[in-house]
Design brief:
elongated; 196 residues; four-stranded antiparallel beta sheet; 15 strands; mainly beta
């Protein structure tokens, strides 16, 4: 959390050679107030997100203290309208994260599982692309590694709004190919809806 900060962490290399660090984001959430009416299918209310070719992650999140229903679940449908993921914990804090999603129009549906007839569901959506926003950095950004070696890193973030949520990715590359990644979330609470 916070508008700026720093955190030490470590990763374990799965290969030998040169480890390069690449950054996507951090990007702010697009917050959509979804109007849901309880029905016979899980699609009580829905919104869409456009995913470009080469996107690295799609995330949709909701939070208990922002949803005016006791238990709401999330469903994700791909551009071919196929159900590919769901989040159905108890309560109304749910999250779906899809890595390297197919390009096209994705649908996020809210399902009122509890007894309320209607609910407003603020969906925090993120479409992450292979672009650094300049507000997240990692040092060192390159290291010579052997298989199984633990590498100590430090990430720094800045220029983050005091209200809102952000998503980024730290990508670990070898010869230009991503081997693994760490998703980074900065949570400064609810943002005002930017899409109605």
């Amino acid at each position: 959390t916070g508008t700026e900060g720093s955190q030490d962490f470590s990763v374990t290399s799965g290969f030998g050679g040169t480890l390069d660090v690449d950054i996507d984001g951090l990007i702010p959430a697009t917050v959509v107030d979804v109007a849901a009416t309880k029905g016979a299918t899980p699609r009580d209310g829905e919104t869409t997100f456009e995913v470009p070719d080469g996107a690295t992650a799609l995330r949709a999140s909701i939070f208990d203290d922002e949803v005016d229903a006791e238990d709401v679940d999330l469903y994700a449908y791909d551009p071919d309208n196929r159900l590919v993921a769901l989040s159905g914990q108890g309560g109304s804090s749910e999250e779906i994260t899809l890595l390297d999603p197919a390009p096209g129009t994705w649908t996020i549906a809210a399902d009122i599982y509890s007894d309320e007839a209607t609910a407003t569901v603020p969906v925090n959506g993120f479409v992450l692309t292979d672009t650094a926003a300049g507000n997240l950095s990692v040092t060192p950004d390159q290291a010579t590694v052997t298989p199984g070696q633990e590498v100590d890193l430090t990430m720094d973030w800045s220029e983050i709004a005091p209200i809102g949520r952000y998503l980024g990715s730290i990508n670990y590359e070898s010869d230009g190919e991503t081997q693994d990644r760490t998703l980074v979330t900065i949570d400064n609470g609810n943002a005002f809806p930017t899409v109605e």
